[in-house]
Amino acid sequence: MIYQTFTIFQKELSGYFKTPLAYFLISAYILISMFSTFYLGAFFVLNNTELFSFFFFQNDIFALLIPALTMRLWAEERRSGTMELLLTQPISYTSVVLGKFFSAWIFCFMLLCTTIPFWIFINIIYQLDNINILSSYIGCFLISGVFCAIGCCISAFNKGLVVAYICTLFLSLIISTVNFDFLIGQFNLSDDVSIRIIQSLNFSKHYNDMTGGQVGFDNIIYYFSMIALPLWLNILTIEYKKN
Predict the structure, then answer these.
(1) Residue 145: closest CA among 201, 51, 241, 219
(2) Count of structural domains within the chain
(3) Domain span at residue 128?
(4) CA 130 to CA 132: how far, in whole Å?
């Protein structure tokens, strides 16, 4: 299974660089990140010892760009008619899904790596809290994994690339912005355990913890759960379509 997953992963990752898509996304990510950091984020006005102006916008930037990365993973297979051929090969559906997912997630890791020179350069100017910044990078990597998993799952339902992009963008924005704190007042909850459970459902709460330097097992477990669910649905979808 590991070999099969790695084979699919290599094929999909190299496929990104055989089209202009990879270079467009890399360029767009760098430009949007730097524009939002220095212009929208008022970098030289705020206290940026933790690169707050940079990480504040990463959630929205990934929600905008990752759907373009994942929309073709299954939609292209369905549109070109190669999906049936792929699923008739002696390879497990889990390996195919994981291979496609990891290719997108590692590409997101590569996007984050393009901003490391920015981190190093700012270290020359300011005395940065590098441990906190490293925690923020881990948080960005985890949220990108969630968006990649969502995109993979939605791509399996659509032949059209545009529809897959819009649906992934819409769902990613909803998941990342929805706040369940209203349930506390709705059900008149007062005990600490119930309130903490409700608050733990908020996507932004865990990202804010990570950018605040609190890696925490609860944050890691939350994001890996959010990754696992769409991938499981993706596998079920492929099995259903095959049957």
Answers:
(1) 219
(2) 1
(3) 2-242
(4) 5
